[in-house]
Amino acid sequence: YQLEHGLRFVVRAFQNRRLETKDKCSLWSWMASQPAQAKRTVEIQQRGAQRSTNHQHERAARSARQAIVTLRAARVTLRPPYTVPDGEPLSIHAVFVTEPHCPKGHKPLEWMLLTTEAVDTVEAIDRVCRYYEHRWLVEEFHKAWKSGCQLEQRRLQSAGNLERLMVILAPMAVQMLRLRALTQLKPSTRCDIVLSSAQWRCLHAMVSPKKRRLRKAPPLDWALEAIGNLGGWCKTKRNPRPGWISLWRGWLDLERYVQGWLAHADAQGH
Question: What is the pTM (predicted TM-score) of this model?
């Protein structure tokens, strides 16, 4: 469908498909035999242990680290699967990302990427890998949008109303994602790069009502924890940072208080 409509994509292959070659070799073995064309460093994000509802599929916790990977690229033609006997072969570009020297105790990184993007230069191959690295950020946005903003819990009567609500909630999800992502990268940076002056001043007055008003914005990690606390989050060893639902609840409370804060400031002539 994507190729028929001229859409661009980078997807990760799951099945080891057969190729349209004389020896009918598989995708993985063919790409592994190609010469290495580039190297790059990939930032692997931290991940907690995950378990499905039926307890059949589990993923172990993973600590954040850097992986030095090797890139191989080629154009391949995938044979149709057995379940589609009348299917047509599919010609596409493949980028094979492997970690040849993985640290002990970690699972080597391995991605088989299929893409419509060009792979004729080292820069183009590197760009495809970089596109896929953004998957973690995209996933976090959807968690903020769906879980945090509780988009799936809205019971609306029409698709049009749901689309309008999605548009309204998306900027809030982006702001929550920006706050948490920047806190992870630069926790000591002042929070006024994300929060407005009214937001961080109101937040400080709410969580520390007996303290003097601050002249400068506090750091990002303070703001993240303060908003999480408003949403009912309590910091523990097992729960070191606020989840999306806590952030969403705290953000809504903050927005309500900010409206009152601004109304009071306007009445006082500030």
Answer: 0.69
